[in-house]
Each structure stands twice: as C-alpha cells, then as structure tokens.
C-alpha cells in the first residue's frame, strides 16, 4: 500500500503487471496521431518564426533541414544578429529508433525493447536588450510500443525583471491550461519551479511558467523526482485527472498557441529601454546560468545527445555570448540584487502586496 502511494505521488511508473496481477494497458492513440501532432507543431514553428520576423524587422530565420541516420530528421530555424533578437532558434524534429535512452527508460521502464517515435518543437530566444527576458518553449509527443505521452512547457528568464511581466506570462499560460482543465495549472506551474532549478546555485533559472511530462490517461499529473515537493502535493490533492489522448493534445495546442500572446507584449514593451555596458555585462553573466542548466540538467538536451540527435540543433539553445565571474555579488540596493532577492525563487506572483511595494520602489513594477 505504501509503495503504491509513493508511486502515485512521485509519478513513477507502475509495473506492467498492475495490482492483483491484472495488466494495465493504455488506450491506443488515434491512428493518425503522429500526423496530427506533426502538423500542429510544424505550424506552431512557422507561426512563431513569422511573428518574430515581423517584430524584429531586420533579422530573418535561416532554415537547416537535416536527416538523422537512425531515422527521422527535422528543420532548425535560427535568427542571428537581429535588431531585437541577438540569437533565437525555433526547431522542429521528428525522430525514431529501436532503443530508448536511459533518460526515458528511468521514468518509463515499460517502454524498454519497443521501437519509439518522438516529435517536438523547441525554442529559445536570446534578446539583445538586457531588459527583455530570455524565453524557452518546448512541446513534444512520444510513442513507444504500448505507451505514449505528451510533455512540454515554457518558462521566462529575466535579467532586469518587472513584476507585471512575470504576472502577464503566468496569467496567459494559466488561462491556456484552464481552458482545457483547471486542475492542470496548479501542478504544472509548481513543477516548472522545481524543474528549472539550479541545485548547485540554489536558485531558479527565472520566474517559471509551466512544465509537464509523461502525461497519459493514467491521470497522475505530477511525474517528477520529488515525491514530497509542492508539485507532488498539489497533484495528490487534485487526485486522478480524467484525460485521454484528445484532451492532452488539446492541452498541447492551447499552451503552444499561448506562447505569442504570453511573450510578444513583453518583448515589445521592453525592447526600447536604454541600457549601458553595466547592464550588458550583467546580462552576459546571468546567461551563464542558462548554459549551466542546459548542459547539466536539461532533459531535452540529454535526450537529444543520448539519441544521436543533431548537435547543432540541440545546442542552439545556448546564447551566442556569455561570461562567468568569480564570486560575483550584486550590489546592495541595486536592480541586480532585486533579481536575486525576489525573483529567483518560487513566488505567488499575483497577490503578494509586499512584492508589489518592493518592485515599485525599484521601478520594477510595470
């Protein structure tokens, strides 16, 4: 009984033979599942690139199409040296193989020995202006023998943060989740804080967003690594959530389509703020945290490298310029110190009046 409870809270996979010796099988996905997901994700890639090109006004996305020897391929679109975007990549991939890597099998051991298929769109944008946050998006779909699942999310990484930007980003993603099921966002927002956490720095990568993985009809929302953390507790409190392939595909669509309205207003509002060399140097220093996370912890990077993916596409998430500084300490009373003290930890962004007063005092409210 205790083992079942731990599995339920932690999201670790049940063995193939479920309780009382009855084998639990997932309902199969629709016959056209792969085509439908591929069509949506490629459309999402195109829509995002078109809007970013329009907004930047100078840069353009160059596309590399590639083929993976073991099966599948993809299309990588990268903008370099734009007016607003110093570098941004928006990728689509569709790959398959005979053996899943340890990064997946540790979570879904029942997929072992089956041919697998994975498709996804991933994006990281590194703006030129330090007052514009870096942003990340990834939505993906897997099939492996009798199992399938959806995953993804988006998160915001500011350098000189504004409370209204964090609130807008979170509110837009919450509305997307709630349009499918109000049970999703309380778990996925906490899971994002947990996932995008640099353990060796004891700080979050940014102000969060949403993150989910291994979502299938079994209905346990949290399937992460901390069975006693806030996301696990929120999942346990919500109980089993009824969803099938169509509902989870709707979740992917709603969240993917929410990206442009969640980020473009922030980019447009902050891109014209004047900055100097100190702000630029701090931006490059904080970009180092992005590199550290993506190379040490990021599940997509690990999966891509373990499955012999295209290295250039996998590592397009890294910024073009970055720096490290030994024993850096932000100055007391500075905007840089505000980032460390108030924004690099899980928060209740919408109702914290003290946070409002603090941000207002720094000119970081709106």
Could you walk me through the main structural features you see in this protein, from its secondary elements to its overall organization?
By secondary structure, this protein is α+β, with helices and mostly antiparallel strands. The chain has a single domain (2-11, 27-361), classed as oxygen-dependent coproporphyrinogen oxidase (3-Layer(aba) Sandwich), CATH 3.40.1500. It has 13 helices and nine strands. It has a seven-stranded antiparallel β-sheet with strand order 1-2-3-4-5-6-9. Strand 5 (134-144) and strand 6 form a beta hairpin. Helix 2 (33-56) runs parallel beside helix 7. It is globular and about 55 Å long. It starts with a helix and ends in a 5-residue tail after the last helix. The model is unreliable at 1-23 (pLDDT under 50).
Indicate the mean pLDDT. Answer: 90
Quick one: biggest sheet? 7 strands, antiparallel
Helix content: 40-55%
By oligomeric state, this entry counts as single chain
Q: And the CATH topology?
A: oxygen-dependent coproporphyrinogen oxidase
Quick overview of this protein structure:
Residues 290-325 are annotated as: Important for dimerization. This protein has 366 residues and is α+β, with helices and mostly antiparallel strands.
């Amino acid at each position: 009984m205790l083992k079942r409870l731990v599995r339920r809270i932690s999201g670790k996979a049940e063995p193939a033979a479920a309780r009382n010796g009855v084998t639990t099988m997932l309902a199969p996905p629709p016959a056209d599942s792969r085509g439908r997901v591929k069509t949506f994700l490629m459309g999402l890639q195109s829509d995002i690139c078109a809007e970013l090109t329009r907004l930047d006004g100078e840069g353009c996305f160059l596309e590399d199409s590639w083929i993976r020897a073991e099966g599948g391929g993809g299309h990588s679109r990268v903008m370099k040296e734009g007016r607003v975007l110093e570098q941004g990549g928006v990728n689509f991939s569709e790959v398959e193989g005979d053996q899943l890597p340890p990064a997946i099998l540790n979570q879904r051991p029942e997929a072992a020995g089956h041919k697998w298929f994975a498709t996804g769109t991933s994006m990281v944008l590194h703006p030129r202006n330090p007052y514009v946050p870096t942003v990340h998006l990834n939505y993906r779909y897997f099939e492996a023998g009798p199992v399938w699942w959806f995953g993804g999310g988006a998160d915001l990484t500011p350098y000189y943060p504004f409370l209204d930007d964090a609130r807008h980003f979170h509110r837009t993603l919450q509305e997307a989740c709630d349009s499918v099921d109000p049970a999703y966002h309380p778990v996925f927002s906490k899971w994002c804080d947990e996932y995008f956490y640099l353990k060796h720095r004891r700080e979050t990568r940014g102000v969060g967003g949403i993150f989910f993985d291994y979502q299938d009809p079994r209905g346990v929302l949290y399937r992460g690594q901390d069975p006693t953390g806030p996301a696990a507790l929120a999942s346990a409190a919500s109980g089993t959530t009824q969803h099938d392939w169509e509902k989870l595909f709707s979740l992917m669509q709603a969240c993917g389509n929410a990206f442009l309205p969640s980020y473009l207003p922030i980019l447009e509002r902050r891109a014209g703020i004047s900055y100097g060399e100190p702000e630029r140097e701090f931006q490059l220093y904080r970009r180092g945290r992005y590199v550290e996370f993506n190379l040490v912890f990021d599940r997509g990077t690990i999966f891509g490298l373990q499955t012999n993916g295209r290295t250039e596409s996998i590592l397009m998430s890294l910024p073009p310029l970055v720096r490290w500084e030994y024993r850096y300490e932000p100055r007391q009373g500075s905007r840089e110190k505000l980032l460390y003290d108030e924004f690099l930890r899980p928060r209740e962004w919408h109702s914290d009046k003290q946070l409002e007063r603090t941000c207002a005092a720094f000119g970081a409210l709106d």
